[in-house]
Amino acid sequence: MFLKIKHFLSKIKILRSFLVRIFIIIVLVGSLPSLFIRYGILSTYTERAISLRISDVQTQGRILANHLVTYNYLQDSTSEVINAELSQLAEVYNGRVLIVDQNFKVIKDTYGLSVGKFMVSEEIIKCFNGENTTNYDEKNQYIEMTIPIVVSVEQTNPEGQSVSTSVVQGVLLISVSTESTQMTLRLLNRNAVLIELALFILIVGIAGGIAYLVTRPFHHVTSEIQKLQAGHYNDKISVPEYWETERISDAFNELYARIRVLDESRDEFVSNVSHELKTPMTSMKVLADSLLMQEDVPAELYREFMVDIADEIDRENKIINDLLSLVKMDKTKADLNIAQTDINALLELILKRLRPIAIKRDVEITLECIRPVTAEVDEVKLTLAISNLVENAIKYNNEHGWVKVLLDADHQYFTVEVSDSGLGIPEEAMDHIYERFYRVDKSHSREIGGTGLGLAITRSAILMHRGTIRASSTVGEGTTFLVRIPLIYVK
Fold first, then answer.
1. Considering the entire predicted model, what is its pTM?
2. Residue-wise pLDDT tens digits, 220-258
3. Is the CA virtual torsion 240, 244, 250, 255 positive or negative?
4. Is 342 helix (H, G, I), strand (E, B) or coil?
């Protein structure tokens, strides 16, 4: 039931407003206590008033009961003094007085309706047994009580001594109205309601003001963001009124900065892709136009130009393939074909494939495995990542250089360290090596056919495995990449 009410309230758009919720909370917090206070005060007053009235009537009733014994009213009910007292008591308390003798016969009724009749009830029987009773009928607004009429009787005990004994010879049955108490209660309640209404109006006004003041900084945040979206500001937003709004502003500024970086990165990426794809096309167009403009082109020149065109086509194809690989890596929903893989065997296979390139460049490749390693990885993507690292180590190496691949593991991760004796990477370039199309030495990269996408692909593949990659380098001495990947893949 509660969930249904919550679901219904969630559909009411105005109740989703923070301002409205603050307003409602303040009104409830301010109004509900006054309702409870009014109820408590009126209840306490009612209990107190009824208790005082009962006590007062009981006192008068005991006095009257003593007078009844003094004037021997149970045997002779013609006493004008007692009758006057009975009438006065009934009139003062707007009630009714009945006197019942020990035979349960009514000998006096101030209403004159039950004289001579017999009256037997649980309260009267209890009273004859010496137990006073008092009942308050809230619905009919009257109090009914019984008071015993006790007579002292002299009796002789078995020892022959005279002993005074109290004997209940009658019952005084008194019913008094509580109408005056109820009238006072209604008057108090009406005045309390008027005060509550005035207080409620005041609370509503205060709640509206407080809710507006509390939520104004959030409206300020919205306004600042809307101005930023409209292009009125190119700077950060700042709403320091609250710690919360300051955190929201800081979080938005960080997000906005990241979006701007992403926009700039996207624009740069598009520009780089256009440039990289256009360059081979331009080269092929120039070579083709050169052949077309000449007549009787020698076969040797023709062959040379066609070889250059084929190289440009290969370069274009490599760029496209790397771009496709990177796009696949960038997809957040890209599926990994995770399986238990022998990492030692995988590295041996990678080096076997790349060894011809190393031999061609006179670079020595060595693999050192500290221990056997089996891990849950995507073999294809991990092969691509490690191959890029080793291939870069070969291509960007010195003549007669070396490349060393080291495999190790602990109880949670395995590490692959790829180090070389190559050209090295300048310190200022270390923060950019994973950026797409970034090249430390563009002229040298173009000579060896680099596209500037290899390390970006490698990093994406490693991150997909919940791994990390770190690089350290010294210019002229070489570079070391350290890859760390969990042995068990965690989704």
1. 0.45
2. 777 777 776 666 555 677 777 777 777 777 877 787 777
3. negative
4. strand
